[in-house]
Amino acid sequence: MSGDAAGENTERDAVDEIVGQWLVERPDLADDLWPVQVFGRLQRLGAALEKQFRAFATERGLELGEFDVLLTLQRSGPPYELTAGAFRKAAMVTSGAITNRIDRMEAKGLVERVRDTADRRSVKIRLTERGRELTHALMADHLAHEARMLAPFDRAESEGLADLMRRLLVSLGDTTIK
Q1: Which molecular function terms from Gene Ontology are attached (predicted)?
Q2: pTM above 0.90?
């Protein structure tokens, strides 16, 4: 059931320990514990990655959410703006969280609020020139950081992992950021 059973890895992780505990507690479920191998690791990996990304952003004077806003606006293309509603959908956070995040970023001169000319009730969040320069400067560093985190895999293994995760996300309906 563990990686060493497949002959690939003899190192044990926390999920191996969790599965071992379940095997003692509920040996009758031994053949049914295989999803824990995947989802337990995905959950723990998510937490470990968030910690890494948070440290990366903090070292650069940003909060993780601010870094996410900068990248989201930059990749949206000219004029590098989105509505607060679009951010809520992409980030799955409350309107209050977006408002507070944008307030902090506006104070830093990274974004600005712009009234929609077609609908004055709608406000768009736009990347400032300073925000674009910062994002441009950080992107190569960000990609190198991600590549370092994937160092246990070669490029083909990374692409295979990405394909497997894509299949799982599509099967769960996660096919768009809108």
Answers
A1: DNA binding; DNA-binding transcription factor activity
A2: no
Report how far residue 70's alpha carbon sits from residue 73's, in angstroms, rounded to the nearest whole number.
5
What is the length of the chain? Answer: 178
- Rounded Cα–Cα distance for residues 77 and 71 (Å): 10
Q: How do residues 16-45 score in pLDDT, each as one tens digit?
A: 999 999 999 999 999 999 999 999 999 999
Which CATH number covers residue 131? 1.10.10.10
Write out the two tokens for 92.
């799955």
Count the domains in the chain: 2
The Cα–Cα gap between 138 and 69 comes to 13
Q: Which residues of the chain have pLDDT under 50?
A: 1-7
Task: State the maximum Cα–Cα separation within the chain, in Å, rounded to a whole number.
Answer: 64
Range of the domain at 175: 62-178
pLDDT, tens digit, 9 for 90 and up, residues 105-119: 999 999 999 987 777
